Amino acid sequence: MKILFICGSLNQTTMMYEISKHFKNEECFFTPYYTDGFLDYFVKKGILDFTILGGQAREKTENFLKRNNLKVDYKGMQNDYDLVYTCSDLIIPKNIQNKKIILVQEGMTNKDTLTYYLTKYLKLPRYLGDTAMFGQSNKYDLFCVASEGYKDFFVNRGAEQSKISVTGIPNFDNFKKYYRNNFPYKSYALVATSDQRETLHHENRKQFIKNAVEIAEDKQLIFKLHPNENFNRAIKEINKYAPGSLIYTSGNINEMIANCDILITRYSSVVYVGLALNKEVYSDFEIETLKKLLPIQNNGQSAFNIAEVGYQLLYSNIPKPAQVLKKYKLKRKLLSKAV
User: Fold this and answer.
1) Looking at the chain, which runs of residues are DSSP E strands?
2) Is 168 helix (H, G, I), strand (E, B) or coil?
3) Distances (CA, A) of 194 to 24, 131, 212
4) Is 198 helix (H, G, I), strand (E, B) or coil?
5) What is the pLDDT of residues 320-331, one digit of tens each?
6) pTM given for the model
7) Which is it for strands 101-104 and 142-145: parallel, antiparallel or unpaired?
8) Beta partners for residue 191, in sequence order
9) What pLDDT was estimated at residue 157?
10) With bands split at pLDDT 50, 70 and 90, how would you rate the model's confidence at 34?
11) Which domains does the chain have, with CATH numbers?
């Protein structure tokens, strides 16, 4: 059996990797996120480098796959796959449309905008509506989501309830582990910036910084810049409107959140880390809504759960003699103990 994992951002890529670890006898292959048709022309020209199709996102994914010695099959062209895991359904390439597909939620979707509503109701290509359109294609067999709250959220937006499985999602299912860290500061106000401007969205960064200064009051302000940001521009703005702030362009933001008292962000999934760890949180999303959507905390069990869903789908149409079935159940038992 051969399985293809379609990656995206570094977060999505590490999630796919964690899931793949639970397939011991199957052949696992990986690919950066890809497209076909006329969009592929824009990818090759670098026009879409601000998305997960190219630029920094693809470079980081390729480096991760190489660093971990994973089998790469770009665009899934080398093999006929029995199962495909993908991190997004905004684009479903033609060569996987007749395969068994499992969609895995990465984290938060973008806020609804006019573009989203136009895309949805005029039935335009889903990628035009950004991640707000995530999960609405129904061109997958199963959809693994972070929580019961997210199940309701996606169903209300058009996803088929029968296809959704509440598994939790890797990287978001064991936030308490981040308390064990070596980050040198404590009891500060942490600002997690976004790449809104780099992805062609509007952001009033000046006002955002001033709001952070007001919220922090007398606490030390620490800024953790989004990996995709224009660092030079962001640093100049912070030094101008929040002098004395500490600025990090790298580092584990989850550990930084674990040590902070206040978390300030806009549209970022890291807000869930703050909520789960009972921090004082500020976001452009309604906090009470976010609490309902909060990913389930299952001590890191989500990757196993998602792999389990894959096993069930992968072998659902294959008759199992008693001996094969016994071996299959034993395998699951051993995997469960390993986790």
Assistant:
1) 2-6, 27-31, 83-86, 101-104, 142-145, 164-166, 189-192, 221-224, 246-248, 262-264, 280-282
2) coil
3) 37, 15, 14
4) coil
5) 333 333 444 444
6) 0.84
7) parallel
8) 223, 264
9) 94
10) very high
11) 2-173+298-338 (3.40.50), 175-293 (3.40.50.2000)
